[in-house]
Amino acid sequence: MKNRLKVERAILNITQEELAQKIGVSRQTINSIETNRFVPSTVLALKLSKLFGKSVNDFFELEGDEK
């Protein structure tokens, strides 16, 4: 699954640590999402969506066999 989290975070000029604190996860979780090592839960994806004011589809996109 591809994601735009790093790009969206950079637009707001916030660190991984700041984002993690805002949504109640560790900085490592944010890093793992950004590097495609972890697919967030629906709840976490919705928290990100709300925080950034964008739809979940603006952040995450299925690839290849996932579609």
Please characterize this protein's 3D structure.
With 67 residues, this protein is mainly alpha-helical. It is 58% helix and 6% strand. It is built from five helices and two strands. It has a two-stranded antiparallel sheet with strand order 1-2. The mean pLDDT is 92.
Low-confidence regions = none
Mean pLDDT: 92
Morphology call = globular
SS elements, strand count: 2
- Main β-sheet, spatial strand arrangement: 1-2
Give the class from helix and strand content and strand pairing.
mainly alpha
Topology as a string of helices (H) and strands (E): EHHHHHE
β content, as a range? 5-15%
The largest sheet is:
2 strands, antiparallel
Q: Could you estimate the helical fraction of the residues in percent?
A: 55-70%
Q: For the terminal residues, how far apart are their CA atoms?
A: 10 Å
Which radius of gyration do the C-alpha atoms yield?
11 Å
* DSSP helical segment count: 5
